[in-house]
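sry for the spam today, last one i promise. struct tokens for design, 212 residues
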């Protein structure tokens, strides 16, 4: 009944579907039921994406045929482990565009999976270049980087830092000064911005010193 709507828009509004069912069939359906119906319609129209994990080995073989120099390894139990996570590494090119370097689908985000992923990435990019990682400081990743890239720099993603910072130290002035420090391009400007934060709120300054 609702396949036509889902075929046009996979994220069709639930209220629209409820109104359609009421007007077309005079049925009043709860939102939760409509959510479930929409999900079933998505599978009927677009297929069950989870089934695609069963074809990972064929996918890896296709990559190797198309690009013999590419690294594509599959060590995941695609049948008995239904939940997957996506690990990704991206970089910035000369034009400041984001370029994907590597992707990994894994069963859990921990030190073991990040180490496996970064170890293969390191072997692919091991040309002596200096690397800097910018991350959300996930614990597994923090543990994996020193073991796989011992000379790499590691910095925290500023939006993630600010989200945690703002939980304890909210306010427009602190927000402005935080981002001024974060966007500083030299030591003098950074220390000046941090000094302003210290003047505004000592506890906020101490938090940043501890976390950064």
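last one done:
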């Amino acid at each position: 009944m609702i396949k036509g709507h889902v075929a046009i828009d996979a994220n069709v509004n639930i209220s629209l579907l409820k109104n359609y069912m009421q007007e077309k069939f005079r049925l009043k359906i709860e939102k939760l039921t409509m959510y479930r119906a929409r999900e079933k319609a998505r599978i009927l129209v677009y297929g069950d994406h989870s089934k695609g994990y069963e074809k990972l080995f064929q996918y890896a073989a296709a990559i190797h045929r198309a690009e013999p120099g590419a690294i594509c390894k599959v060590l995941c139990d695609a049948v008995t482990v239904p939940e997957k996570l996506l690990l990704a590494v991206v970089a910035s090119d000369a034009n400041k565009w984001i370029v994907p370097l590597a992707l990994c689908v894994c069963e859990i985000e921990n030190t073991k999976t990040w180490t496996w992923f970064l170890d293969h990435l390191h072997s692919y990019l091991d040309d002596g270049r200096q690397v800097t990682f910018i991350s959300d400081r996930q614990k597994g990743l923090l543990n994996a980087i020193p073991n796989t890239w011992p000379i790499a720099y590691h910095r925290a993603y500023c939006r993630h830092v600010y989200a945690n910072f703002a939980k304890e130290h909210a306010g427009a002035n602190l927000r402005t000064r935080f981002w001024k420090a974060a966007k500083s391009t030299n030591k003098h400007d950074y220390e000046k911005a941090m000094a302003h934060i210290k003047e505004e709120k000592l506890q906020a300054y101490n938090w940043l010193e501890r976390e950064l």
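Residues 158-211 form one domain. ok im logging off now
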